[in-house]
Design goal:
Strand content of chain A: under 5%
Shape of chain A: globular
Number of strands of chain A: 0
Order of helices and strands of chain B: HHHHHHHHHHEEHHH
Strand content of chain B: under 5%
Number of helices of chain A: 11
Radius of gyration of chain B: 23 Å
Distance between the termini of chain B: 46 Å
Largest sheet of chain B: 2 strands, antiparallel
Helix content of chain B: 55-70%
CATH architecture of chain A: Up-down Bundle
Helix content of chain A: 55-70%
Oligomer: heterodimer
CATH superfamily of chain A: Ferritin, core subunit, four-helix bundle
Structural class of chain B: mainly alpha
Distance between the termini of chain A: 29 Å
CATH class of chain A: Mainly Alpha
CATH topology of chain A: Ferritin
Chain lengths: ~290, ~350
């Protein structure tokens, strides 16, 4: 950037795009560069699509919740961090939805899938769609979802689907940061003041029964494992539980007890009352102008 | 060797709002006289004043006021655009907008840090903002009514900000100038992103084109007001220019913005809502109409369409977050105490 005292801006519509022009980056670099995006021979496209859709919807819906923190965060550093995490998840969602649209043969792109499905067609876990609550509830939820997703993505780097493997490889470093960020806040709030401890304990107590759905193994996930592109849920769940208990211990929080697998509600399209309004907001402009290009 | 802070009686605690008050100069103090001479000579050589250099109280106060106001503008400026992140009509636009608003938070952080090198405190500045004792750019008191506003803010508002800020990269205060280099680089990218959105919308449906024109109609005049009142009515400009904090007058920058923007509007295919706007061959510049300066005064003094809600939102976030910041401080103190004890036990 010149510091000379005149403006030589190139015409705005011809300027090159580049990640280095952003303060923090957008994750716009193509992680699929050089990856063969053809379906693996013999793979069940519908099963792969269902799996990618579930993981993509988790990321998209949580990114939407994180975006709702924007201008409400407790400190400017948290504004930056929460936006950063939201951007990472949005990037993961875009790749996974795109893959789902390829694999199911429908040719639907990321926007078609994000903006023109109704709530019962979404496959995210309910934990992602719950309202943010206070900062303690939001960080407890973020810890759970990022710890679970990191345990999963660490294993998906070996997926039989090269696209899923590439998405996971990129996602692992992102999710490690998300988990670290959330864990640090759970510890700070658990250890901090009486008030923060009380709020964090309440958040953990409220979170615990919701984790059963994460531990549930849906038909989609079972099929993915059978087909060789999914990760073994038992190993994922074991790592996830260990991380959760380790963080609670470091934070001085009471362990709410055993974690039991629940029913796979969201993976079947059975959502809470909170998803439809979230989608109404997200899809409002796109649906008001279905013929438009953005 | 630069002269450093003789006696440090130069007011480390700035009093924003009292900017440009004459310094009580103890003329007979030779150390002070030498420091002043060094300050003036540094300015005359177009070199930078750094945080530990002696500087006149008024210079410090003016900078704190200006940098804080700039930081506040970045943070309040997150609101009008941030309101559209959850509704962005494509995932790519959502990512671009989220990244942009994140950049604004980052700009606020650099600028608060620059103000802290002058002895200000971020917490205190934030309280001044939410109490209405410090201002931010009046432009952010206008509402964003459609997604086209996101593009127009990028094009016009960021464009005007760049005109204002590129000369600040040569501002005499080092930390501010360096922060502005980075801010300008990012702002120019935002401006291009905004313009690219508008280009795409103008190639889209009739409804999209109408949305863009409507947004241009609403943002054009407020954008011109971003350069501040006309020179004749800008009491602080002369001193700020003498101190080389500011490099051009408000009217010079406004003219530059108009000249830069008119060809971009033509290329975009929108009409700028000013019947007096035309090229003046003789001056080599565009002539343009007079902004409604009464409106600017009204908006600056709190009477704009969104003043109350912008400040209220910031106040609520700050107050709602207090328990989190307190917890972080308490945890850090406990950790420090634990390390201290562990160190003692190890020593024993």
């Amino acid at each position: 950037m010149t510091t000379e005292d005149h403006l030589h801006l190139p015409p705005a519509d011809t300027a090159p795009e580049g990640d280095d022009r952003w303060a923090f980056g957008t994750g716009f670099t193509d992680p699929l560069h050089g990856v063969d995006t053809a379906l693996p021979p013999g793979a069940d496209g519908a099963a792969l699509a269902a799996y990618c859709l579930a993981l993509g919807d988790d990321a998209l819906v949580l990114a939407q919740r994180l975006a709702q923190w924007c201008t409400h965060a407790p400190e400017l550093e948290e504004e930056v961090a929460l936006a950063n995490i939201g951007l990472d998840l949005l990037g993961q969602a875009r790749l996974l939805l795109t893959r789902a649209g390829q694999a199911d043969g429908s040719g639907r792109d990321e926007d078609r899938l994000a903006y023109f499905r109704d709530a019962p067609e979404f496959r995210n876990v309910l934990l992602a769609e719950l309202p943010n609550g206070d900062f303690a509830h939001s960080t407890a939820r973020l810890l759970a979802l990022s710890a679970w997703r990191l345990a999963l993505f660490g294993r998906l780097t070996g997926s039989a689907d090269p696209v899923l493997a590439a998405v996971a490889a990129k996602g692992v470093s992102e999710l490690a940061y998300h988990r670290e960020y959330a864990a640090q806040w759970v510890v700070r709030l658990g250890d901090g003041t009486d008030e923060s401890h009380r709020r964090m304990q309440e958040a953990v107590d409220a979170l615990w029964p919701r984790l059963g759905e994460l531990l549930a193994v849906s038909a989609t996930e079972r099929r993915a494992v059978d087909e060789g592109f999914g990760a073994d849920p038992a190993a994922v769940n074991e790592e996830f539980e260990a991380v959760m208990r380790q963080v609670l211990d470091a934070a001085g929080l009471r362990d709410p007890g055993p974690l039991l697998p629940g029913e796979p509600a969201g993976r079947l399209g059975a959502h809470s009352e909170y998803l439809a309004p979230l989608l109404d907001e997200m899809q409002s402009v796109a649906r008001a102008h279905p013929e438009a290009t953005w | 060797m630069p002269a450093r802070t003789p006696g440090r009686t130069d007011g480390r605690t700035p009093a924003p709002g009292a900017a440009n008050a004459p310094d009580p100069a103890p003329a007979q103090d030779p150390a002070r006289a030498a420091a002043e001479e060094h300050f003036e000579a540094t300015l005359a050589r177009e070199q930078r004043i750094e945080p530990r250099d002696w500087m006149p109280d008024g210079y410090r106060r003016t900078l704190v006021r200006q940098i804080a106001q700039h930081a506040h503008s970045e943070i309040i400026g997150m609101q009008p655009e941030g309101a559209w992140i959850t509704r962005a009509p494509s995932l790519r636009r959502k990512a671009v907008l989220l990244a942009k608003v994140q950049d604004e938070a980052g700009h606020g952080l650099y600028l608060y840090s620059a103000a802290e090198t002058l002895g200000a405190d971020r917490q205190d500045l934030t309280e001044r903002l939410v109490d209405g004792r410090q201002k931010y750019s009046s432009i952010f008191n206008y509402p964003t009514l459609s997604f086209a506003d996101v593009g127009v803010i990028g094009w016009l508002v960021d464009g005007a900000a760049i005109c204002n800020q590129v000369p600040l990269c040569r501002s005499s205060y080092g930390p501010y100038a360096r922060a502005m280099v980075r801010v300008c680089k990012e702002e120019s990218f935002h401006q291009r992103q905004g313009y690219e959105l508008l280009m795409t919308m103008m190639r889209g449906t009739q409804a999209q084109r109408e949305m863009v024109q409507d947004a241009v109609d609403r943002w054009w005049w407020p954008s011109l007001m971003m350069f501040g009142p006309p020179d004749a009515d800008s009491p602080n400009t002369a001193q700020s220019m003498a101190w080389r904090i500011k490099r051009h007058t408000n009217d010079e920058l406004r003219q530059r913005f108009v000249d830069m923007t008119v060809p971009q509007a033509e290329k975009l295919g929108v009409t700028l809502p000013d019947p007096e706007l035309r090229w003046n061959e003789e001056r080599g510049h565009h002539d343009f109409g007079t902004p409604d300066w009464d409106e600017l005064k009204r908006v600056i003094s709190g009477g704009g369409p969104c003043n109350a809600e912008r400040v209220e939102r910031r106040r609520a976030a700050h107050e709602d977050g207090a328990w989190v910041r307190e917890a972080a401080a308490a945890h850090a103190a406990k950790q420090a105490e634990r390390s201290r004890r562990a160190g003692k036990e190890q020593a024993a």
